Structure formats: structure tokens, C-alpha cells
Amino acid sequence: MSQASVLFDVPGPKAARRYRLLGIATIVGVVALVALVVWKLYSENQLTAQQWEPFVTPRIVDVLVQGLIDTLRAAGIAIVGAVVFGVLLGVGKLSDSRLVRWPSWTVVEFFRAVPLLLLIIFIWGLASYPNGVLFPLVIGLILYNGSVLAEVFRAGINAVPKGQAEAAYALGLRKSAVTRIILLPQAVKIMFPSIISQCIVVLKDTSLGYAILAPGLTVAGREVFRTFDNRLATAIVLAVVYITMNLLLTWLGGWVQRRYIGQRKSPGLVGGVVQSQPDGGAGGTGAPGLA
Predict the structure, then answer these.
(1) Cβ(120)–Cβ(218) under 8 Å?
(2) Is residue 279 part of a domain?
């Protein structure tokens, strides 16, 4: 019996007809909505050449490209910093020492609770940074997203089968070595999709630099629509750029996972016998589980 037939019954003639009608109605509704949007844009003179011509003007293109470079630079620094910050706090929350565990817990919960925009503005105003400075944006992104990633790493470490750590302790390894050599690499493998998702969030959140005029795409777009009074066209162009960058980052994450990490397989039934996970995830305590 196929998996599909286990999850739901095969639709009969009436159900199949109903599904076809629903599909046709959905397509018609989407086409009508798109047509309405286009008509609205046309009636508001948002599809004229005057609104879109700046985006093929070399001078404006250079401004947007420089904004894109600034955005990628801020996102790159913030992603690296957030991953390092998250690993330290995630491991710290699992420490046996209260002097490490409770401060780590406090930092994570505090920065996860503070709205990111307010955090960026607070850091910017705390040291009276001038407009156009990237530092407050990057620090805010690191603190907030690093705190989120700390929970991701903590959950990943806890998800590693206990047999892995027990086997390492049986060989005489200390807890720091077990975490660094055994648990953390497997946690990254387990949580890699969540890590990539948070990296995408970091990339999108660079747009909040608009509030402090930090260099980036949104500030470059601000200069464009203030000059040409084409706010909607500018917003659409920036949205397309952000969506493209996020899709490329998602593709890169998927490629890295396939190439260097591989797919984590769950235990399954083969011939009525439970098969263990290829990374020793069956919970065995023997040394082969460390390979």
C-alpha cells in the first residue's frame, strides 16, 4: 500500500470533480486579483515610464548596487557574529556551572524579548552614533539573532542521542571535549535548516537599518524615491532584490547541506527490524557510535 493511500482515501468521481472546480476557481481568483492590482497601479499612474526609468539609469543603478554591497556586508558580519554568539550562549545554557548557566540564560531571554528595531535604535542612541553608521545595526542583529540561535543550538545538542555522550564519557573524555567534538558537530547537522532560516532572517532584518540611516538597500531606496517620488516602484524593486537574495541563500544552504553535511535519516523499519541511524543515533553506547 502506498504512503498516499495511508494518509487519505483516493478521491472518487464526485470528489475529483469538486477538486477540479476548486482549482479552476482558485486560478480565476488569482488572475482576477492580479488584474485588479495592475488596473489599480495603472489608474494611479504607477506603471508609467517616469516611475520605472530611474532603475535603468546608470547613476541610480550604481547607488542601488552600493546599497546592495553594504547590505551583504552587514548581513555577512552579523551572521558570523550571531552564529559564534549563539554557540557560546547555547553551550553556556547547558553548563553545569551556575555562574555560566544563569548569565547565559539571562542574556538569551533578554535579547530575545527586546524588539529588534528598538534594540538597534537604543544601541545607536547609547553612544550617540551619527547617521550613516553600520555598527549599531550589526551589533543589534548579532545580539538578537545570536540569542535565537542559542536556543537552536541548545535544542540541537539536546536532540543528539544520549548514547553518543555516554560512549564519549566511557572513553574518558571531559564534558567540554564531549560537547566540542561529539555533540556540537551533530547538533549543527540536526539544526542546519533552522540555522539557514535564521540567516535569512538576519539578511531581511538589515532593512531595519533604515531607522538609523545605516548604509544599505533601504537607505539607497530612500534616496531614489525622495528624488523621483516613486515610492511604490522603489518598494517593488527592493522587494524583488531581497527575495532574490533570500532564494540564493536558501539554495546555498541546501547545497552545503547536501555536499558537506548530508541528509539526516530517521530510524525505519526494514523487514520488520528497526534500523539504526547512520550517525550512531540508535542510542548505542559503544565506541563505534563516535565515528
Answers:
(1) no
(2) no
